[in-house]
Design a protein that fits this description.
By secondary structure, the chain is of the alpha/beta class. Helices cover 58% and strands 11% of the residues. The protein is built from ten helices and five strands; from the N terminus they run βαβαβαβαβαααααα. The radius of gyration is 18 Å and the shape is globular.
């Protein structure tokens, strides 16, 4: 296979799937197969025959590493580059992911402008030079970004009414990744801080950060 053409994206968050489609299909010109779960990726892999897979780490049901393991069991997938998408940034965490058999790692928040060339690096082990958005694509990106903003009320509700701590952390993880991809770096970092406080069971600090997060979401929506 001489050219990278077909890319499978496995991501449960619809906003991140939207930015992946914008980045890789509209900017990169790749043919995409979008999957919302590991099971869907396994169902579609044989027909789509991806040249490269972008795989989220944290997903409900089958996790990213579990999906990677099952994909590697398929004969036609053994030589296909599989790149993890993750919000993890600690060196030992990243090394652990590579040891599970991933070709590489792209850390969220990723740059949608450079992502098409970033994945090509894993495909051809070369280097690329980022290209800017032209006006038409910039307008399209602005529309997609506005859709994300309009969806923040739903994300706030998911966080506020999360039935379990695991559900809360999953909602925060999705928000952190999507916010970073759409250029809301402060929101992304705040969501990560809330998630860290949740993992540490620091209830007073967690409540303080949740209140700050709620106000930040309202401010971005223009209702603060």
């Amino acid at each position: 296979m001489d050219e990278l053409q077909r890319v499978m994206c496995v991501e449960d968050d619809p906003d991140i799937r939207m930015i992946l489609e914008f980045s890789l299909a509209r900017l990169g010109g790749y043919t995409l197969c979008m999957c919302a779960s590991g099971n869907e990726a396994l169902d579609k892999a044989a027909v789509f025959a991806p040249h490269l897979v972008l795989l989220d780490i944290m997903m409900p049901g089958m996790s990213g590493p579990e999906t990677l393991h099952h994909l590697r069991e398929l004969d036609f997938m053994r030589g296909v580059p599989i790149v993890f998408l993750t919000a993890k940034t600690m060196p030992d965490e990243l090394e652990g992911l590579l040891q599970q058999g991933a070709t590489g790692i792209i850390v969220k928040p990723f740059d949608p402008v450079t992502l098409p060339k970033d994945i090509r690096i894993y495909w051809e082990h070369g280097r690329g030079t980022p290209e800017g958005l032209n006006l038409a694509l910039a307008e399209q990106f602005a529309q997609i970004r506005q859709t994300f903003i309009l969806g923040l009320a739903k994300r706030e509700s998911e966080i506020e009414h999360a039935p379990t701590r695991a559900d809360l952390n999953a909602a925060l993880h999705r928000l952190a990744g999507a916010a970073g991809a759409f250029g809301f770096e402060d929101l992304s970092q705040l969501a990560r801080s809330v998630m860290q406080a949740s993992h540490q069971n620091d209830e007073s600090y967690l409540l303080k950060l949740l209140a700050e997060l709620k106000q930040t979401l309202k401010t971005i929506r223009g209702t603060g």
